[in-house]
Amino acid sequence: MSELHKFLFDGLPVRGMIVRLTDAWTEILRRRESNNATGAYPLPVRELLGQITAAGVLMQSNIKFNGALILQIFGDGPLKLAVAEVQPDLSLRATATVVGAVAADATLSQLVNVTNHGRCAITLDPLSKFPGQRPYQGVVPLFGDRHEKLEKLSEVLEHYMLQSEQLDTTLVLAASDTVAAGLLIQRMPVKGEGNLAGSMVSRANEDEIGRNEDYNRIATLAASLTQEELLTLDVDTVLRRLFWQEKLVRFAPRTGSDGPRFACNCSSERVGSMIRGLGQDEAASILAERGEIEVGCEFCGKQYRFDAIDAARIFTAPTVQPPGSSATH
Ligand SMILES: [Zn+2]
User: If you measure from the C-alpha of residue 82 to the centroid of ligand 1, how many angstroms do you get, rounded to a whole number?
Assistant: First the structure.
């Protein structure tokens, strides 16, 4: 069963998490494989999407935010898009769009950063929005300080954490066809945020970047974990091997119906509003050509079919106007 474990280093400003996705991950792969229109993902895409999904769970669990965390890579190579969406209750879904031939040994840059224009976006989409509120989005490139292409998703996300939160972070990510897993170690923010000393605190945080000896020692231990070990060892063994000299405080793991699990929140209504977005003329021309409009969910593979009567209903149903916006007719 998929599981998420959180822990602290007693008395030190360092926290950590390990996620192991098993059933949640194999369900995503199984659905893709059984989709006759697409077939299974190529191996390098499976590895990257698994890492994105594991990282999405770690990042969602690392913030106090009531909404979806969406981790996306927009590629400039054969992999055009890879996305994982994780809800606050840790239900998750993920998908990727492959547009070209993928070599069996394709690296991260060969997949998504051929011309160094690939990018990674982290979106926080609040569950309940006030009128006009947009999701928050942070975007980072897939290159380092000297424009060198990064070859590990973990490095891309470490950069993001440093830029967006001024927090040192160490990530180890790995995925196979049965497990997608991640280890996150992070320096905790200097306490006192949100009070009058806020600006002093954020400066103190920046001053600590790369300098906290406890964090540096633990980060070095964490970075010694190989992908093979992360995929094959159970969580207790990983923690014992890496941190046997440290004093860990562990929290109850989240697993089962409280843990990371596959779920898709697609619905006929959402697909309907997408068809409405196409416009009535476009919808009518698809109906004339094929007799129905068929839309498959990218995440779970569910097929939605709309015949002429359904389509007419979509376009005549009253659309909900957000408060403050003017009606168009
Ligand atoms: Zn779906």
Answer: 15
* Strand-pair partners of 296: 303
Domain(s) of CATH 3.90.1280.10: residues in the chain: 268-316
For residue 325, name the pLDDT band (cuts at 50, 70, 90).
Answer: very low
Å from CA of 271 to ligand 1 middle: 10
Task: Kindly give the distance from the C-alpha atom of residue 176 to the centroid of ligand 1, in angstroms, as a whole number.
Answer: 23
- Rounded Cα distance between 47 and 327, Å, is 47
Residues, Cβ < 5 Å to ion ligand 1: 264, 266, 297, 299-300, 302
Mean pLDDT of 313-326: 64
The answer to whether 7 touches 29, Cβ cutoff 8 Å, is: no
**208-258 per-position pLDDT tens digit:** 777 889 999 999 999 999 999 999 999 999 999 999 999 999 999 999 999
Domain 268-316 -> CATH class = alpha beta
- Secondary structure class of 304 (helix, strand, coil): strand
The pLDDT of 303-320, averaged and rounded, is 84
Give this prediction's pTM: 0.89
- CA dihedral 48→53→57→63, nearest 10 degrees, is 70
pLDDT at residue 199, as a whole number: 61
Q: Which of 201, 217, 123, 216 is nearest to 166 (CA)?
A: 201
d(CA 291, CA 288): 6
Please tell me the distance between residue 269's alpha carbon and the centre of ligand 1 in angstroms. Answer: 12
| Contact criterion met (CB below 8 Å) for 302 and 264 | yes
Residue with tokens 């170690």: 185
Q: At residue 282, what are phi and psi to the nearest 5 degrees? A: -60, -45
Strands 254-255 and 3-9: antiparallel
Which CATH code is given to the segment(s) 3-190+199-262? 3.55.30.10
